[in-house]
Amino acid sequence: MGAVRLEEGGGAARARDDVLRYFAERFGVAAEAFDPYGVIAFGSSAWLVSKAMPAPASLRGFEPQNPGVRLLRDLGTFVKPTSAGLRLVGRAATRNVADLSPEDLWPFFERKPIAPPAPIEPGFAVVRLRGEGHVIGCGIQTRDGLVSQLPDSHAAGLRTSLFLAPRAGEARRP
């Protein structure tokens, strides 16, 4: 995969092209999935923004914490898609997708490696709820299995909102 360049001032068109190429190559997401959004580089991240939002440089006087929904974070040696960003564009993914059953969710939320239901290339994956198509967020396929990359607060909120009952022999979880 070509490098994703997230430098500010590198041009909105280049940032958008690099992000769309990454999502097409890694997840099979068509460019049309991004049509409702602007894509900008701001700090060390790529963000999905309202198309009506002014250029980030014009916001400097306001010291914005973030300009939209973080889509990718540049971690130096690689970029990581965020769960929040995947929830917006992950329905369109056709590659490196893990459609998890409800039984797979507990160990996934606990960051235990699980066997993905279909082959996934090593690296990041879009994680969805099987049969529903709802995007849960980001996972990473390691040699040990698929491991959650969800923020702990998001995983806890999902456990609560999905009313997941404990497995047989386990105590009820918060």
Question: How would you portray this structure in words?
Answer:
The chain is α+β, with helices and mostly antiparallel strands. Strand 7 and strand 8 form a beta hairpin. The chain is 24% helix and 24% strand. It has two domains: 78 residues; 66 residues, PUA domain (Archaeosine Trna-guanine Transglycosylase, Chain: A, domain 4, Roll). The chain contains four helices and eight strands, in the order H-E-E-E-E-H-E-H-E-E-E-H.
Write a short abstract of this structure.
With 174 residues, the chain is of the alpha+beta class. It contains four helices and eight strands.
Describe the main β-sheet briefly: 4 strands, antiparallel
Helix count, DSSP H or I runs of 4 or more residues: 4
Rg is 17 Å
Q: Which consecutive residue ranges, at least 5 long each, have pLDDT under 50?
A: none
Protein structure class: alpha+beta
The number of distinct β-strands equals 8
Q: How much of the polypeptide forms β-strand, as a percent range?
A: 15-25%
Distance between the termini: 41 Å
Taking strands numbered 1, 2, ... along the chain, how are they ordered across the largest sheet? 1-2-3-4
Average pLDDT figure: 83
- How many domains? The number is 2
Q: Order of SSEs, N→C? A: HEEEEHEHEEEH
Measured as a percent range, the helix fraction is: 10-25%
Q: What general outline do the C-alpha atoms trace?
A: globular
